[in-house]
Design goal:
The complex is a heterodimer. In chain A, α4 crosses α5. Chain A has one domain: 3-Layer(aba) Sandwich (Rossmann fold). Chain A has nine helices and twelve strands. Chain A is an alpha/beta fold. The longest helix of chain A is centred in the C-terminal third of the chain and has 18 residues. The two termini of chain B are 20 Å apart. In chain B, α3 packs antiparallel against α11 and α4 runs antiparallel to α5. Chain B is mainly α. Chain B has one domain: ABC transporter involved in vitamin B12 uptake, BtuC (Orthogonal Bundle). Chain B contains 14 helices and no strands. Chain B is globular, with a radius of gyration of 20 Å. Classes of the chains: A alpha/beta, B mainly alpha. Chains A and B meet through α2 of A and α9 and α10 of B.
Chain lengths: 257, 325
């Protein structure tokens, strides 16, 4: 049995007057790649932020590596759990490299400079995301897709076992979408990390995730292995839209009907 | 900014500070050699030097440094590179306190206590209104501060309108910022050392907070605590500066900006850098304020504004071009 990185028991979450989850049990193990699917405004980001300790659940317990999440210090959480946000706020100028290097913050003392090792980790992350040439560019001048890749490089630089990602494929073209998901999957498989991400593309979810969590509204959730959850009738109910199921060389695919 | 470029930048700034200090000490209505003054204790020159020149130079440096560090802190707190130390109305509270003291014919010491009290009152008022319910959002903080500043502005106008003519000039000098009545800034120096040390120790977290609150939290920063700390430090620095020298504008806005444009975006460099640069800018401006319409003196705040406005517009225009180049 692989070790459990994040374990939720009986989680209730609400945002505004939307009930996101009611009594959700979830166990994310090392090596697993989870995908969270649901309609717009159903509370995917709220749930993700709850798992990252950025907001507290109304009820239930969350444990990170066996420790209650609400008792851990921010710095300790940041060494074990990294999160990619939907938006980046760039009010001040900074270079790509400076931004990526911020991923090392949880490991530094308050006024310590980053070591050569930290620089190496950040450089490697930039190389993996094909951003080496952007190293000295001001982040305020990047395109949406480039900025998104910088944010993912920062997340990899943080070197956490658990990666939570809010729409990692946002702003990315077809090639980079697959590229990023491949990188995340490699992290999962080879480094025994765990990924939990929000996606809007059922076909990418089917191809990369081994586990799926559905938010069906009114607090109703469904979690399980990808084969178990990705059923046409269930997906039609999830999005309230008819779907056409296709058999393709890379597996089952769905088109909007 | 690369670590290797940090030391040269700070050395250049330190050199500029020394030059600025020398210029400020040399400038005045009496030509005076600094060396003579120090070597002949008891002479008239020594008296002028120790009782007038040195306190004024020291106050100019400490005030400029406090304003710039407060500016850099406010910019991080409000996540807006255009914020200045006065944006949340601290100087308005101080001004009302000072004008009331002048109106009552109070001594310098009492005037300073009133100004500091007014600044603290304004700080607490903004804090309790904007942070009252526990959540602290940047827009609400900014709006609360800006509206209160407007309120203070109205009270200042009222006080000016009802004050007898003889007191008006003193009031205006105070409002514009003036160093001619400076004393050796003991309390100011202590506050500067305290604020600078704490700000430097927290500077890595400032880098993260500049990228957004969620971003900073996710990377291990206790943002709620940090923001309260920044608010307290910035308010203390501003209140002290205003108490010492009145409302000297633009230094707190320009010094952090000039350094950012010079590549010092990392607060580990920016914080020590603004102390030197802000102090130097005010040393030079104060020296010039004694030269421009000799033998009369300009309030230094008028000069910083007159020089600051075109300089700031120039920097703003240049950075826009650089960004899209």
């Amino acid at each position: 049995m692989p070790e459990s990185l994040l374990c939720c028991a009986g989680i209730d979450t609400r945002v505004g007057n939307v009930t996101v989850t009611r009594g959700l049990d979830l166990d994310i193990h090392a090596g697993q790649c989870w995908c969270l699917l649901g309609r717009n405004g159903i509370g995917k980001t709220t749930l993700l932020h709850t798992l990252a300790a950025l907001r507290a659940p109304l009820a239930g317990n969350i444990e990170l590596n066996g420790m209650p999440l609400n008792q851990l210090k921010r710095r300790d959480i940041a060494r074990q759990l990294g999160i990619l946000f939907q938006d980046n706020e760039d009010s001040f100028p900074a270079t790509v490299f400076e931004t990526v290097l911020q991923g090392r913050h949880p490991y530094l003392h308050s006024w310590q400079w980053e070591s050569a090792r930290d620089h190496e980790i950040a450089s490697n992350a930039l190389t993996r995301l094909g951003l080496s040439e952007f190293k000295n560019r001001n982040i305020q001048t990047l395109s949406g897709g480039e900025r998104q890749r910088v944010a993912i490089a920062t997340l990899l630089t943080q070197q956490t076992r658990l990666l939570l990602l809010d729409e990692p494929t946002n702003h990315l073209d077809l090639h980079h979408r697959l590229d990023i998901l491949e990188i995340l999957l490699t992290e999962c498989r080879e480094q025994q990390k765990a990924v939990f991400m929000v996606l809007h593309d059922i076909n990418l979810a089917a191809r990369f995730a081994d586990h799926i969590l559905l938010l069906l509204g009114n607090g109703e959730t469904r979690a399980g292995s990808t084969q178990e959850i990705l059923q046409t009738t269930l997906l039609e109910r999830l999005y309230g839209h008819r779907l056409i199921e296709l058999e393709t060389p890379t597996g089952t695919a769905w088109l909007p009907g | 900014m690369h670590q290797a470029r940090t030391v040269p930048l700070l050395l250049v700034l330190a050199g500029a500070t020394l030059l600025g200090g020398w210029f400020s000490l040399e400038t005045g209505s009496v030509p005076l050699s600094i060396l003579d003054a120090i070597q002949q204790p008891g002479s008239l020159n020594a008296q002028i030097f120790w009782e007038l020149r040195f306190p004024r130079t020291a106050t100019a440096f400490v005030t400029g440094a406090l304003l710039s560090i407060a500016g850099a802190l406010m910019q991080v707190l409000l996540r807006n590179p255009l914020a200045d130390p006065y944006i949340l109305g601290i100087s308005g509270g101080a001004s009302v306190g000072a004008l009331l003291a002048i109106l009552a014919g109070a001594s310098t010491l009492l005037l300073q206590s009133f100004a500091f009290g007014g600044a603290l009152f304004s700080t607490l008022l903004v804090f309790s209104l904007a942070h009252g319910q526990g959540n602290w959002d940047t827009t609400r903080l900014l709006l609360t501060g800006v509206v209160l500043a407007a309120g203070w502005g109205a009270i200042i106008s009222l006080l000016l309108a009802i004050s007898p003519g003889v007191q008006i000039q003193g009031m205006l000098f105070w409002l514009m910022g003036d160093l001619s009545a400076a004393h050796t800034p003991l309390a100011g120096s202590i506050v500067l050392v305290l604020v600078a040390t704490l700000a430097f120790m927290l500077s890595t977290s400032f880098n993260l907070l500049a990228g957004g609150e969620l971003h900073a939290t996710a990377l291990g920063v206790e943002t709620d605590k940090l923001r309260v700390t920044i608010y307290v430090l910035a308010s203390l620095a501003t209140a002290t500066a205003v108490t010492q020298a009145g409302n000297i504008g633009f230094i707190g806005l320009i010094a952090p900006h000039m350094l950012r444009l010079a590549g010092a975006r990392d607060h580990r460099v920016l914080i020590p850098g603004v102390i030197l640069l802000g102090g130097t800018l005010l040393l030079v401006a104060d020296g010039l304020s004694r030269l421009v319409i000799e033998p009369r003196q300009l309030p230094v705040g008028v000069l910083t504004a007159l020089l600051g406005v075109p300089l700031f517009l120039f920097l703003l225009y240049r950075s826009r071009r650089a960004r899209y180049a």
